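Figure-free illustration: sequence to structure, shown twice.
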Amino acid sequence: MISIDNLHVEFSARPLYDHISFVINDRDRIALVGKNGAGKSTLLKIISGIQTPTSGNVTIPNGTTVGYLPQVMKIQDDTTVRDETRKAFSDTIQMGKKLEAMQQEMAERTDYESREYMDLVERFTNLHDRYMMLGGEQYEAEMERTLQGLGFSRPDLDRPTAEFSGGWRMRIELAKILLQKPDILLLDEPTNHLDIESIQWLEQYLAQSSCAVVLVSHDRAFINNVTNRTIEIVCGHIEDYKVKYNEYVVLRKERREQQLRAYENQQKEIADTKAFIERFRYQATKAVQVQQRIRQLEKIVPIEVDEVDTSALRLKFPPCLRSGDYPVICEDVEKTYQHLVFENVNLIIKRGEKVAFVGRNGEGKSTLVKCIMGEIPFGGTLKIGHNIQIGYFAQNQAQMLDDELTVFETIDRVAKGEVRLRINDILGAFMFGGEASEKKVKFLSGGERSRLAMIRLLLEPVNFLILDEPTNHLDMQSKDVLKEAIKAFDGTVIVVSHDREFLDGLVDKVYEFGGGKVREYLGGIYDWIRSHEQSKAEISQPKAKEVVETPVQNDVAQTEEPSKDDILSYAERKERNKKISKLEKSIKEVEGKIETLEKRIKELDAVLCSPEGASDMAVVSEYTSTKQVIDAETTRWEQLCEELEGLR
């Protein structure tokens, strides 16, 4: 359908592509992949006609329509969501007005037998058929379905677009492009501003669509569910794989191993040839052979090996203090701006847990994180455990870096111990290898600053990580490095993210935000997705009427399960609250005792590290007995907490 022929692009005399060619066929679903800076977004701009290549051609057949969604675009803010989205149907609306005018003309004319009247009827019929093929009067319903699929509620449709954030306005632009039904869709990071539900809706939409798709995305689950072909931009050329991304990863690894073997064989051949030339250069009897070898050497085309895959690099958080067993306890926490964000939030996060905050944008995920950080006021009680050292990655974290430092200096200032010897490797894993490490922070792009802020966080000694959308500007290799580092982290983690592949295997508990409530789900992200889809299916299915004979006096149906407070009498509630207070006091006493004993253990550790202390049996005995007491107190603490949870 679309032919890219001998495309060559240069920036500052450096070739970005070196005469690449490929064809986009009908119903192709292409994932465009490659390292940051390889030219993925540039290629989409060239295909869409926004940018001109240095040489080469992009051939698009007449009548073929192209829809292009860039990462960033200027958006109008002078109308409502509904009216702005309706612009996608401008041709259909104009056609409808023309049909109305023709219909009015036919009603007013009386020359039914004339040739002009018959021509008018024929034009009206043809235009009406085309109008109905384009959806006719159904476009309003289709528009609402698309906007709701992308996360807008029905009341949102009549709100001014100026009231929405940039991410929500990008959703409006995506809806307009989808509703225009182009023959080919070019999507540059379409999931950056979507939540999990909207991403799943977009996956289904693209799967059912008849158009071709070329997309750039770092969401592995999304491109695996959408694409059937993978084009990699590497070393200025392309490699075309007719498979999904996961299969491409396997094939690419095999291909690189073949490249390495061929490269090593070629280097051996070059070395042997050079050795022969040097050995016999000045012997007259070997002059002919030497000249032959020199010509052979000149004809050798160097084998290029793809960039080294640094995803295998492993980072480990530096050691830190042991935190309290309950880093976060929320009791009836609520937050209200002009509207209610959430209320009655009751949650307990234990030490070592890795949890995800999920839900639609605007439901309060980042707001609760800010409450935990103490950045904004809130109602209710929120307790932070003892010895908590928080490492916080906010969505605007990149703006807090020192502009005057270089990339290397920024990391060198926080790196400690043996990590200092591996700074260049770590920077390379996050695409700051070579000269890029000497760039000043003020010259970095937004995505580069975010990656640098993430590396800085990875090297700080903390025992509680809070990550708010950490993967938005990370490529797949960088995400893999980050994910492995978090999995190996023995502290507590809260992740706010819509990246299913990143969360899969990382979190063991999910908190869903929605409708002013926060609900807890035990299990991983896909467990929550299955549970969520099942709940939606149950809600959408009408319940069968149950015929149950009930006494006349029970004419009020019980619609909700009574709470514990409703069942208990006043005296029982008073007794229960008394027990809760007593247990909370006991828990604090035990925690204080454990903290004191742990300090003593550290002192004994220091003594045992000395030659004199290592042979002092009294110290060894005290160390052993103190450890036993800590274990016993920890067991008692766990029992008390279980009792407390049972009462609540």
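We now fold a second protein in the same way, so the two outputs can be compared directly.
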Amino acid sequence: MTERHDKSGLQVASELAAFIDERALPGTGVETEAFWTGLSKIIHELGPENRELLDRRQRLQEQIDAWHIERRGQPHDHNAYKAFLTDIGYLAPEGPDFEIATSNVDPEIALIPGPQLVVPITNARYALNAANARWGSLYDALYGTDALGSAPPAGGYDKGRGARVVAWARVFLDDAFPVAGLSHADARRYHVRDGALLVDDLPLMQPEKFVGYRGHPKAPDAVLLVNHGLHVELVFDRTHPIGSRDQAGLADIRLESAVSAIMDCEDSVACVDAEDKVLAYANWLGLMRGDLTAEVSKGGDRFTRALSPDLTYAAPDGSPSSVKGRALMLVRNVGHLMTNPAILDRDGEEVFEGLMDAMITTLIAIHDLQRDGGNSVEGSVYVVKPKMHGPEEVAFAVRTFDMVEDALGLPRNTVKIGIMDEERRTSVNLKECIRAAKHRVAFINTGFLDRTGDEIHTSMEAGPFSRKDFIKRKAWIGAYENLNVDIGLECGLMRKAQIGKGMWAMPDMMAAMLDQKIEHPRAGASCAWVPSPTAATLHALHYHKVDVFKVQEKLKAGGRRAHVDGILDIPLATFRRWTSEQIIREVENNAQGILGYVVRWIDQGVGCSKVPDVNDVGLMEDRATCRISAQHIANWLHHGVVSQDQVMVALRKMAEIVDAQNADDPHYRPMAPGFDGIAFQAACDLVFKGRVQPSGYTEPILHQRRLELKRKSLG
């Protein structure tokens, strides 16, 4: 039985109440009674409206289902479908043109295109790694991955591979920072004279790209350059193993990498109760106060990891200057759907977790607002809001933060909102969603994974969907990705807010990422998600090659390339001439991904995992990828493409494979041969009950089953 304390009519779990009163509130200037009174008001006034928004989602879905069922067997009538969606209010009227009025936005959001990391806030080491991923070694990223076309060799340092890394990096310097009449590969000396960087006494072709140095100007320890807003540091050290063999003494090239990072309280964590929420909030508190640490073991050594300091230099004229040493941190709150038992309202019902997150994460961010040299230099708090359905739900989030700011004594619009464009009702109404938050919006981002899951669920009754790889090739995805950028530019986000793209999900395949992810800046995206600090360093290279603002200017001048009609093109299977082998392989691939993710979520509370697929390619899995796989099987089950018995056979077969893939994990609990554990049952629920889950989300089942396991483990 959870011990609780009464706080202004709220029944708050004792560990959460103690965390707020004893750790989060002190130092903010917010009185204890004012906090709890404010939170109680938010929960009791906005909770019923939250519930009505969810009910409206369900009513719209029922109407869409009925429309498709009534026309089953008939050719799809696009015009009639669009008119129907307009009639029921799913498609909102598009209003006049406008531009956002967001103010006090940090340069990392408005002015510096670059990579963005997303990490689970419940893992302090990952959170620190992400914050410190503002800077990364290009040499290490090239040497330690397959970026050069092959994996690094086992054993000690390979001089031949090291030489290839150095040569590759010098080509990058020639491209980004050309020297008049000289290649960086031939350079023997870098020095500063009369405020200019000279390379073997020759100037940069663009001298303004030299912005600082450290050490003596005649033989600097470091040189700071900038290109398209991103910094590059040349590190010189003739005593270093690399620098000692380099004719210029260049020991490393460090790139400004993860310009921003999302500390995630949502898709990549498994927070189901007060214990979990306190862990998430405590790590966010450490980041906002700047005192978060984590004990790390690496190569047999143990050390304490902390937040990196800012980097100091002499400007070209010799005056002191500095650049940020950490990524600008955003926090992703939970969406509107889920409740959490950490707090009960006056009727004894679980409160909406999104309302709880809004108040508590903003309270914690006050610690940053009150210190110099912290996260935001502009005095803003950045909250990413996921899984909102349409303009009215965005407007609800705005009202929530109005009330949060009033309760905490913050100026209006201190909290900036990131709108995840990952539900279809948001995609087709994106301009009106942005309008609803025009004073707060600092970020829009496509999320292909959740977006696909919602696409399948919304059109569940329309017919069987294509195989997953073919869904990605359908016309709707191009329309979705293009319209997001087009609308963002039309609404004035350029140089005011981020226009983002989704995750690279294969963290071990960096050569492929280097080849493919450059399409994101080329598409006009000012940020795109990466799965690791190393990937951030490599993705940063794309922003040196592509001037995103020039791309955006060109796109803006050309007007819209995509329209809502393209997004409403449902990616159903056209011919359905699948062999039985193709069907079973698709189901097994989905089942393996679900099981590999769910078994760690339920048994170990791990919300984001690198899960090997059926070909043993490691994929970053979170609830969004799980949502696609579960909805896809549910769709095929519903339309008779595959039987329940066939799916169960696939689940059991894949459970044995997942068991084998995790054999070296001492904390892993095998699912076979009994197939009766809570994790396996959760995976079955996601598939066999997937059609009736709200919006096809995985959270209700995962939370229920994780709580079941936690109760069982307590006896």
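Summary for the second example: The longest strand covers residues 219-227.
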